[in-house]
Amino acid sequence: MASLYGRIVASSARRHVLSTSYRFASTKVTLADPLEHATGLEKRELLAKVAGNDNPFDAKVIKRGAGTRAAPNEIPSAFDARLVGCVCEEESTSITWMWLHKGEPKRCECGHWFNLVHKAPV
After folding, report:
1. Which residues are annotated as a binding site?
2. What keyword terms does UniProt attach to this protein (predicted)?
């Protein structure tokens, strides 16, 4: 009896698998490209990434240079002001925040200078 039950389960499982794979073998399912469905700011972001700009909003960390008054660290922004954080010491766990305004270089507490430069918006 157990053998008969085992054969019935195995044959029904086999039929189900075969019918499922046979049914989908004739149709090819593809997912739509996200770029086709995106609109607005999301679409402009995806187009910038396709063009090779992996940081369209300049949200990644910018390594600080010499930062002298004559050659300040340039911070890109599409606006007239931007909030900037400076990690003054390499192993520091705190960030010094300051507002940068267009045309006004600003000095951090650690002595590094920063300047806001224009960048075209995304």
Report:
1. 86, 88, 108, 110
2. Metal-binding, Zinc
Round to whole Å and give the CA distance between 61 and 85. 10
Distance CA 54, CA 122 (A): 12
61-118 placed in CATH 2.60.120.560 = no
pLDDT > 70 fraction of the chain, expressed in percent and rounded: 79
The span from the CA of 64 to the CA of 87, in Å, is: 9
Domain boundaries, the chain: 2-49, 61-118
Kindly report whether the global pTM for this prediction surpasses the value 0.85.
Answer: no
Q: What SS3 state is found at 25? A: helix
Element (H, E) at 97: strand 96-101
Around Cβ 84, how many Cβ atoms within 10 Å? 19
Numbered residues of the known binding site for Zn(2+): 86, 88, 108, 110
β-sheet bridge partners, residue 73: 114
Is the separation of the CB atoms in 33 and 114 below 8 Å?
no
The position carrying tokens 């045309």 is 103
